[in-house]
Amino acid sequence: MKKIILIAFLAVIAGRCAWLFAQDKAADAGGGRQMGGAVQDTSESGLRDSEGGDWKDPDSDRAKKLDDKTVDEGIEGRLKEYTSIRRKKNLFRFHMGFSIGAVGYGILGPRDSKEDIFKYKYEKGSFTVGFRGGLEALFYLQKRHCISAGLFFEQRIIQVRIIDVSMFTIVSGLPMGFLYGAPLRKYVDKSNIDTNYFTIPVLYRFHVLDEFYIGAGLDVGVLFYGRARYGVFLWSRKMDYARRLRPVDLGARMVFGFTMNRVFIEVGLGCGVLDYDRLPGERHSIYLTAMIGYRI
């Protein structure tokens, strides 16, 4: 009898445990369905956000950053284009320079000279201005050293009084021997001797600062044109003055310059080393150059 009661009690307990276990299984199944629905709602919500334009793709943010970087690099490249050519740190660099400006020209030495029937008197303190322009090649070594060679056209104008004694003989009827010693220059106007040269300047420049430099060098000038006009009263003549000048002129010059963003301004002062002309007496040229240009 006791065994029957014990078995019945154990059966009741086993049934109760089975019912509780079934309830737990049912609860777990319901939670899984709720989580799946939440995930589905989240994905659908994200899809709706994407369709509405509010959803942000991380790849697009990365692409935008790359585009911004590209724009910044382009701006930086354009800014570097306008920096001074002196700030580049290459060991060896080559540039071309184009410049135009003016050259002031004068003569040092004896003012009076004679040749056959002509008498010449160079004007005292005369300093005339002509055109100068050309190009040059610049070779930069390291940071501060530059060697250049160029080709320039120069218009050198000199003022001189040219006295043709034969013209006075014709006009006055007096003998040439008498007139040769007479003070005739006060009856003669000043004449401009227009001479044209091709010059080859070879210069060394040293950059004291990034934008300021000084230099020195030689100017080799080749004469290819020289003409003057002179006269007495209303009677005038032309003269080929080139044969009275040296065909080659050599000068030494110092320069001072300032450069910024490839534009430069340069001033030079030079003096002729050789005799200026073939007339009696030794004369030398003195000249001043003022140039503005651009280097590429």
Mind explaining what this structure looks like?
- The chain has 296 residues and is of the alpha+beta class.
- It is 30% helix and 47% strand.
- It contains four helices and eleven strands.
- The protein has helices at 2-52, 58-81, 165-172, 176-180; strands spanning 92-108, 112-115, 118-122, 128-141, 145-164, 191-207, 212-232, 235-240, 248-260, 263-272, 284-295.
- An eight-stranded antiparallel barrel has the order 1-4-5-6-7-9-10-11.
- A hairpin with a 3-residue loop joins strand 4 and strand 5.
- The radius of gyration is 48 Å and the shape is rod-shaped.
- Mean pLDDT is 78; it is low at 35-54.
- Side-by-side strand order of the widest sheet: 1-4-5-6-7-9-10-11
Instruction: Note the total helix count.
Output: 4
Show unreliable segments: 35-54
Helix % is 25-40%
Rg, alpha carbons: 48 Å
DSSP summary, beta strand count: 11
| Largest sheet report | 8 strands, antiparallel, barrel
Order of helices and strands: HHEEEEEHHEEEEEE
Residue-averaged pLDDT, rounded? 78
Structural class: alpha+beta
Distance between the termini: 121 Å
Approximate strand percentage: over 45%
* Global shape: rod-shaped
